[in-house]
Amino acid sequence: MATNDVNTRVKKHRAALRAAGLRPIQIWVPDTRQPGFAQEARRQCAIVAAADAGDRDLEDFMDAAFQDLDDDEVGG
User: Fold this and answer.
1) Confidence grade of residue 1 (pLDDT, cut at 50, 70, 90)
2) In this structure, is residue 72 part of a structural domain?
3) 9, part of any domain
4) Strand, helix or coil at 35?
5) What is the extent of the structural domain holding 40?
6) Of 25, 44, 64, 67, which alpha carbon lies 20 to 30 A from 35's?
7) What is the pTM of this model?
8) Is residue 17 part of a domain?
9) Quick one: pLDDT at residue 75?
10) 19-63 pLDDT, tens per residue?
């Protein structure tokens, strides 16, 4: 397939997306294939878990939110 054909298709597709009210964005995320990624993820999760464990207000808030969801399912 010629490069020009591909470029034309891509432009058409992007124009259709824009016409649908969408816009392109670029987002950079951590590379999960990098050495040490899993260890760093575990380290950060342990920090968050420790902080959450000591936050009774957060636990109460989450319990109330889940109760609301259950009430909505039963009543709605």
Assistant:
1) low
2) yes
3) no
4) coil
5) 34-76
6) 25
7) 0.47
8) no
9) 56
10) 999 999 999 999 999 999 999 999 999 999 998 787 888 888 988
